[in-house]
Amino acid sequence: MGLEVCKAVDAADDLELVAMIDQGDWLNGAADAGAQVLVDFTTPDVVMDNLQWAVDQGISVVVGTSGFSEQRLERVRGWLAHKPGVGVLIAPNFGLGAVLMMQFAARAARYFESVEIIEQHHPRKLDAPSGTAAHTARLIAAARAEAGCEPMPDATKEEQAGARGADVEGVRVHSVRASGLVAHQEVLFGSAGETLTIRHDSLDRVSFMPGVLLAVRNVRSRPGLTIGLDSLLD
Ligand SMILES: NC(=O)C1=CN([C@@H]2O[C@H](COP(=O)(O)OP(=O)(O)OC[C@H]3O[C@@H](n4cnc5c(N)ncnc54)[C@H](OP(=O)(O)O)[C@@H]3O)[C@@H](O)[C@H]2O)C=CC1
Ligand SMILES: O=C(O)C1=N[C@H](C(=O)O)C[C@H](O)C1
């Protein structure tokens, strides 16, 4: 993703690529080069250190790295409280189709008894469930809670641990990893006599670039923490 972002920024007439930082590189190189925005696609292990460093430096940040719990987001809000001019945008998925898939799933959530998420990724992915699936599950759980939905029907006794997937705020998430896949997600809703499947496929990593560039262009004019691309697409 890092290389793909560098190519996309480099190709954009209104943006300038001033530094590329890999593992082991000196992060200060970005500040020395005059970076106004840092884009982070690294790993859940190191993203918080990178983010804190950039906010301290007064550099706005666009984050695609997964692994953001509510506790992590609170820490970021704490750092930003001391840097009122700095913007941080964290998006679980920069694919515009994926953003719409999450919005459609949140909209459908209240109308169906059952919902499960099946996410599918390439086998080099380090984390499961995906950030997109976890975020979708939270949106669905919030919509169901707001609508006062009953718990989902499920009489299954799990004979083998994991058979029913992970429980993310009451929503089952199934993670598939297989060669040939890029990034895919289905949200399967069910009620008496009908199902609704909302599916998104990223077939190539270029799918994330329009969203990343949109975020890079806008993050400095949005101080504080922005989650997702939704508010930029309104
Ligand atoms: N929000 C979105 O739309 C998307 C999010 N993602 C997420 O982005 C993250 C990265 O994904 P992906 O590019 O596939 O993963 P990769 O493993 O291919 O890339 C991660 C890169 O980060 C580098 N890295 C590790 N530590 C540091 C560090 N301290 N400073 C700088 N670079 C470092 C790694 O270097 P090395 O190779 O030397 O270890 C590697 O090049 C994941 O969390 C993934 O889920 C991915 C796609 C889209
Ligand atoms: O690792 C990936 O590839 C992706 N990670 C993000 C996630 O965890 O949701 C976004 C997209 O699914 C690709």
TrEMBL record:
Signal peptide residues on this chain, from the entry's feature table: none
Binding site for (S)-2,3,4,5-tetrahydrodipicolinate: 122, 131-132
Binding sites annotated in the UniProt record for NAD(+): 32, 64-66, 91-94
Pathway(s) annotated for this protein in UniProt: Amino-acid biosynthesis; L-lysine biosynthesis via DAP pathway; (S)-tetrahydrodipicolinate from L-aspartate: step 4/4
Entry keyword annotation includes Nucleus: no
Gene3D superfamilies membership: Dihydrodipicolinate Reductase, domain 2, NAD(P)-binding Rossmann-like Domain
Top EC class of this enzyme: oxidoreductase
Sequence ranges assigned to domain Dihydrodipicolinate reductase N-terminal in this UniProt record: 1-94
Keywords: Amino-acid biosynthesis, Cytoplasm, Diaminopimelate biosynthesis, Lysine biosynthesis, NAD, NADP, Oxidoreductase
UniProt similarity note: Belongs to the DapB family.
Quaternary structure annotation from Swiss-Prot or TrEMBL: Homotetramer.
NCBIfam families listed in its UniProt record: dapB (TIGR00036)
Annotated protein name in UniProt: 4-hydroxy-tetrahydrodipicolinate reductase
Organism: Paractinoplanes rishiriensis
Lineage: Bacteria, Bacillati, Actinomycetota, Actinomycetes, Micromonosporales
Originating gene: dapB
